[in-house]
Amino acid sequence: MYKILIVEDTVAIREEVFDILLMEGYEVFQAKNGRIGFEIALNENPDLIISDILMPEINGFEMFKQLQKEAKTQSIPLIFLSAKGEKKDIREGMNLGAEDYLTKPININDLISAVDNKIKKKLLIDQKIIDRTKSLSTILQNQENEIDNYAHLISHELKSSLRNVSDLLTWSQEDTEQTNNRKGSASNLQLMIEKVERMELILVNLEQYKNITPLSFKNKVINMHSVVQQVVDEVQKPPHIKVKINNQLPTLFADENMLEKVFEILIQNAIKHNDKEIGIIELGCETTEKDYIFSVKDNGAGIPEKYHKKIFEMFQVLESSESTGISLSIVKKIISNLKGEIYVESILTKETTFYFNLPKNNL
What confidence tens digit (pLDDT) does each residue in 97-116 have? Predict the structure, then answer.
């Protein structure tokens, strides 16, 4: 049951409004001046206040100003009651933020209509607040999960690599002291270099992932064909692998650096997992009524179906893979910030295609 507070010093008007709203199914409270109305509003937190303007002790305007200062009551809608022709009072009420006004003597239909509209509006606002709170809660939970993942990585991956480096140093020292085995020491040194490089790559990728936030996107008009062609030209690839763009890519309003990073990671991923004598990587884009759908296809080893979703999660890697498990998470985070989605289709030993869509209305 919705609660309404009536603040009116004229008993006849106050009781008339009270009876009408009671008959409409509302829980109704009464106050004979602004001071009492303010106290009742703090205690009962009504869904709507209907208040006269000219009253003893504290008038309607002063009561409204006090309510606006209180976090608990500042969002309560208020309808002022005003005598006919009091345009100055009406304007002042509107300037203060009052939702509406009714003139005396009160028309029953106008009263019921105004109250119903204000209650419905408040319900919509309250629902938006609830939805926004849920959304923020989800964002905070995701951030907490990311922090947990960081902690997991640092405690497991980095510490594991450091232990390996420590062991390799010990073995190298033992080889040198006991057998003067320079070949074994050189092998251990190379392994240590690889472990250190892996740790450095993990830290770089983590920093990139952390820096992908809504505020970090600097959108502008970009020619995606030129952007992707530049990535293709600059990415390091062995001679037996060819990368080609199948069709003209569209012009978008988006962040150039972020989309460069997406294609760089997807192309490097395709190169890394290509096991064919002649490797082919094909890039393209289809345009639908709502989306641009980009694709990166290769004729490599393929990805088992059980990994199709896992590979986009932080620190998830394929079996026997040397990946840090962060790169595809970076891609997913960028695409998500552009309101798109990414997914993979693959046939083992034959091909893999990564698809991601960018909604037109967000670009």
Answer: 665 778 788 888 888 888 88
The residue length of the chain stands at: 363
Helix %, strand %, coil % for the chain, to 5?
A: 55, 20, 25
Distance between CA atoms of residues 152 and 158, nearest Å:
10
- Structural tokens at position 130: 């609830």
Checking phi first, is residue 255 left (phi over 0); if not, alpha (psi -120 to 50) or beta?
beta
Q: What CATH superfamily classification does 218-362 receive?
A: Histidine kinase-like ATPase, C-terminal domain (3.30.565.10)
As a CATH number, domain 3-106 is 3.40.50.2300
DSSP codes, 252-275: EEE-HHHHHHHHHHHHHHHHHT--
What's the rounded Cα separation, in Å, for the pair 81 and 157?
69
CA 318 and chain centroid, separation: 28
Q: Residue 35 to residues 7, 60, 305: CA-CA distances in angstroms?
A: 9, 9, 69
Secondary structure letter of residue 276 according to DSSP? S
Give exposure, 232-246, as e/b (b: 16+ Cβ within 10 Å).
Answer: beebebeeebebebe
Lowest mean pLDDT among 10-24, 52-66, 203-217, 302-316: 203-217
Burial 21-57 (b: 16+ CB within 10 A, else e): beeeebebbbbbbbbbbbebbeeeebbbbbbbbebee
What's the rounded mean pLDDT across residues 56-72? 88
pLDDT tens for each residue of 117-157: 888 777 776 676 677 767 667 766 666 666 566 555 555 55
Please return the burial class of 195, using the count of CB atoms within 10 Å of its CB with bins 0-12, 13-18 and 19+. middle
The partner residues of 242 in beta bridges, in order of sequence, read 280
Per-domain residue ranges of the chain: 3-106, 143-210, 218-362
Burial class (CB in 10 A: 0-12, 13-18, 19+), 79: buried
